[in-house]
Write a structure and sequence with these properties.
The complex is a heterodimer.
Chain A (H helix, E strand, L loop, with lengths): L5 E6 L8 H4 L8 E2 L3 E2 L2 H10 L3 E5 L5 H7 L13 E5 L15 H6 L2 H6 L4 E5 L3 E3 L3 H10 L4 E8 L8 E5 L5 E6 L7 E11 H13 L5 H6 L8 E5 L4 E3 L3 H10 L3 H7 L16 E3 L4 E3 L1 E3 L4 E2 L2 E3 L2 E2 L4 E2 L4 E3 L2 E2 L4 E2 L4 E3 L1 E3 L4 E2 L4 E3 L6 E3 L6
Parallel strand pairs in A: 1-4, 1-6, 4-5, 8-12, 14-17, 15-18, 16-19, 17-20, 18-21, 19-22, 20-23, 21-24, 22-25, 23-26, 24-27, 25-28
Antiparallel strand pairs in A: 2-3, 6-11, 7-13, 8-11, 9-10
Chain B lengths: L6 E6 L20 E2 L3 E2 L2 H9 L4 E5 L4 H8 L13 E5 L3 E2 L2 E2 L5 H6 L2 H7 L3 E6 L2 E3 L3 H11 L3 E7 L9 E5 L5 E6 L8 E10 H13 L7 H11 L4 E5 L4 E3 L3 H10 L26 E3 L4 E3 L1 E3 L4 E2 L2 E3 L2 E2 L4 E2 L4 E3 L2 E2 L4 E2 L4 E3 L1 E3 L4 E2 L4 E2 L14 E3 L4 E2 L4 E2 L4 E2 L13
Parallel strand pairs in B: 1-4, 1-8, 4-5, 10-14, 16-19, 17-20, 18-21, 19-22, 20-23, 21-24, 22-25, 23-26, 24-27, 25-28, 26-29, 27-30, 28-31, 29-32, 30-33
Antiparallel strand pairs in B: 2-3, 6-7, 8-13, 9-15, 10-13, 11-12
Helix pairs in contact in B: 6-7
Classes of the chains: A alpha/beta, B alpha/beta.
């Protein structure tokens, strides 16, 4: 099957509460990451790079910043007359009105019309709390070759600390023989990365059936319950792929980008991760600036010392200021002679002159949007 | 029929820019990269939209491919519009034959029907080789208040430089009494900036008359403006004191790039109220390694810096390897400066590669001041390992490993 026969569906809200600090003012999909991106850029770019031409983004609440980022879909070439990008706002059927959208099954069910109207035969469904860059066409080819009903992309590693995580047991042909959910597991396992491929008609059937039986969990009632009835196979994600399950993981994965090999795999590969363009000026490095192992976006103005840090667009580091091991989001100002270590600042935070703030790399301090310290 | 526009702009972008040498072998001058992420044409285009002019005709002729690509549908400047927007206007075939644009005035003449479509009262005529931020709305207000047929933006230049410019003798009421084109003994230091506002009905008349004159070279400066002046039309000068640079030569292009690194030069690109828009490539954040040393420089996304940069402008995806040393230089998109290479007072064009330990350019202090100039390495050119390129040359061929380039 070709990617141009696949409809992309992105859940923009799943696991919002796992990084509450970052999602208090936005939905998971619009959490800033890697100096200039938002989480949504990763599933969206992977889809578009493979040749997908129609993507629906399911939203639940707090999605203003997501809409602002996505716009018409132009940066991803998804502003089209035929197909393109659809933001799917919450739409409750009367039966659900009382409870709202509680889970993935509800979310898909309430967008059944969108699914039905798409001309594509297949769907790929993703979340937006992970960063990765691999060729979705390989995933689709694998699905075809295996003659699978459902393909689940998985990763081998330590289980993220999130609800409904599926640990997969597979046979030699990658067929999933068992799915264990929410098991506390310390050792490395094969866990589902919440990227699924299947026929659209199958998805429609499974969701309708789940709703008819008043079952609500995509992981339990759609995947786990059908291990024996359907051919479910696992596809191991190649390259750099990380799921964010906490602010600490967010910090650690961000810091991984300072390694050239990770940056190359995730951001500078031949398949670029595309984001909304900005009209910032290039970064300006002043007379007294000292830079050491850091990533910087356009629009920054740096006259202090920056070490092992990620600076988003428009960050200002004034003279005498020292920034170490930190993530400073868009518009953060570190005033003269302030010293910060192991902090995460949300957008437009100002650290006033001569302050001395430090967390620990294992427990970075987070500063919420727009505050002045 | 398009909606009536009070004022539209026509941007003359067809010139070769031959004084920029190898930088404009394959691209038109307005498409030459400038200031880290911009191209020269971003300045007039951004000025237009910031001034509220949303219909812009871009007249192209010389090597238009890259320029056409760059302007595209005008989306980066908000000029992708249903009504108006940016239009690339190239010479075209007509029943009576095919004409290239014979001169600046002829270029506008050939597009009279384009202008008529918008039925404007006024037309701004701009050129694509100046770096400046200017509110054309203010100039238009002046033009209207003066009830002029033609308003010419003017700035006072230093007397010793005045003879390089088209000069104007200006009366106290702002009207122009006389023009002098690059005179040996200037009587004025008020230079034309090549920015004009015309009352369209007047200009239209003179363009048609100019076209009918077989002896005319169909140029604004040489023919149309003198003709209007002689006929007694009201010509006024509009004084502009802000930053303005003609970047038509290697030296001025280099200087204007250095200006943006200086907080006191008068050009501030980081002004939220007067943004300069550009078509920005999608690139990863810039990386500064632990070996990087960077000062007084501007760096754009996609760059990877392990070496040293001082007073330099680095465009997207430029690479400075460990031990590379770049000073007072402009490194255009995708160029690579290999380990230990030394680049000073140079312009390295797109995707050029400076080999390990090569030396390119030299400062005015180490060269005979009369021979000094910026060294230019052309697009896609490779300078071999350990090769030497002196100051004041343009290199448009491979320089082999270990050799010293001599200009022919």
């Amino acid at each position: 099957m070709r990617a141009n026969n696949v409809l992309g569906i992105i859940h923009s809200q799943a696991f919002d509460s796992s990084i509450q600090e970052l999602t208090s003012v936005r939905t998971m999909a619009s959490v800033p990451f890697g100096c200039r991106y938002r989480f949504i850029d990763f599933p969206l770019s992977n889809m578009v790079n493979a040749g997908i031409t129609e993507v629906g983004i399911i939203t639940k609440e707090n999605y203003q910043s997501l809409m602002d980022h996505i716009g018409s879909g132009k940066p991803w070439d998804l502003a089209r007359k035929r197909e393109g990008l659809y933001i799917l706002p919450p739409y409750n059927t009367s039966a659900q009105a009382a409870v709202g959208i509680r889970n993935r099954v509800d979310a898909l069910y309430s967008n059944m019309d969108f699914l039905r109207h798409s001309r594509h035969e297949y769907v790929v469904i993703t979340d937006s709390n992970a960063v990765y860059n691999f060729d979705f066409q390989d995933l689709f080819d694998f699905h075809s070759k295996q003659e699978a009903d459902i393909t689940v992309a998985y990763k081998h590693g330590k289980l993220p600390n999130l609800e409904n995580m599926q640990i997969l047991t597979m046979d030699g042909d990658k067929r999933v023989t068992e799915v264990a959910i929410d098991i506390a597991e310390e050792k490395e396992v094969d866990y589902a990365f919440n990227i699924y491929v299947m026929r659209k008609s199958l998805l429609e059937y499974l969701v309708k059936t789940a709703v008819a039986h008043n079952t609500t969990s995509f992981a339990k009632d759609i995947i786990q319950a059908n291990v024996d009835n359907l051919k479910i196979v696992g596809y191991e994600i190649p390259g750099f792929a990380e799921m964010i399950d906490s602010v600490r993981t967010y910090y650690n994965v961000s810091m991984e980008l300072l390694k050239p090999e990770n940056r190359k795999a995730l951001l500078a590969s031949k398949n670029p991760i595309v984001t909304k363009v900005s009209d910032n000026v290039p970064a300006l490095y002043g007379q007294d600036c000292v830079m050491d192992n850091s990533l910087v976006a356009d629009g920054c103005s740096i006259d202090g010392t920056v070490e092992n840090s990620l600076l988003f667009r428009g960050v200002v580091v004034e003279k005498g200021a020292v920034v170490k091991n930190s993530i400073l989001m868009q518009g953060t100002v570190i005033s003269a002679n302030a010293k910060v270590d192991s902090i995460i600042t949300d957008k437009n935070v100002t650290i006033t002159a001569n302050r001395n703030l430090s967390g620990d790399p294992s427990y970075p301090i987070y500063f919420t949007k727009n505050i002045v310290v | 029929m398009a909606r009536k526009n009070e004022c539209i702009a026509m941007l003359l972008a067809g010139g070769q820019g031959s004084r920029l040498g190898i930088l404009t072998h394959k691209i038109a001058k307005p498409a030459v990269p400038f200031g880290g992420k911009y191209r020269i044409i971003d300045f007039p285009l951004s000025n237009c939209v910031n001034s509220g002019i949303y219909t812009v005709g871009v007249l192209t002729q010389y090597q238009p491919l890259e320029l056409n690509d760059y302007v595209g549908n005008g989306e980066p400047w908000d000029l992708d519009r249903s009504d108006g927007g940016v239009h690339i206007l190239s010479p075209y075939q007509q029943i009576k034959g095919t004409d290239w644009y014979k001169g600046t005035a002829n270029a506008i003449y050939q597009n009279i029907h384009f202008i008529d479509k918008y039925d404007p009262e006024y037309v701004v005529v701009l050129s694509g080789d100046h770096i400046y931020k200017m509110d054309y709305a203010d100039m238009l207000a002046y033009h209207k208040a003066q009830e002029a047929a033609c308003t010419i933006a003017m700035r006072e230049v230093e007397w010793k430089e005045a003879s390089r410019f088209g000069l104007m003798l200006v009366n106290e009421d702002g009207t122009i009494s006389e023009f002098e084109e690059k005179p040996e003994n200037p009587r004025s230091n008020k230079a034309s900036m090549g920015i004009y506002i015309f009352t369209w009905s007047k200009l239209r008349e003179y363009l048609i008359a100019d076209e009918a004159d077989p002896n005319s070279s169909n140029d604004f400066g040489h023919n149309v403006i003198p003709a209007m002046h002689e006929a007694g039309e009201k010509m006024v000068a509009y004084q502009f004191d802000g930053y303005w640079r003609d970047v038509g030569t290697i030296e001025s292009l280099w200087e204007a790039n250095m200006d943006i690194l200086s907080p006191t030069s008068g050009i501030n690109l980081n002004d939220p109220h007067w943004k300069i828009y550009a078509r920005t490539p999608n690139a990863a954040p810039q990386y500064l390694a632990d070996t990087a040393e960077i000062k007084n420089s501007m760096v754009t996304e996609g760059c990877s810096i392990e070496g040293t940069a001082d007073f330099s402008v680095l465009f997207p995806n430029a690479t400075l390897e460990e031990g590379a040393n770049v000073k007072y230089s402009i490194i255009m998109p995708g160029a690579v400066i290999k380990k230990g290479a030394d680049v000073q007072y140079a312009i390295v064009a797109e995707n050029a590669v400076i080999g390990e330990n090569a030396k390119v350019g030299a400062g005015p202090d180490v060269t005979d001041p009369d021979d000094w100039g910026v060294a230019v390495i052309g697009e896609n050119i490779t300078i071999g390992k350990g090769a030497v390129v002196p100051a004041n040359v343009m290199v448009n061929e491979t320089v082999e490993e270990g050799t010293t380039y001599e200009s022919k």
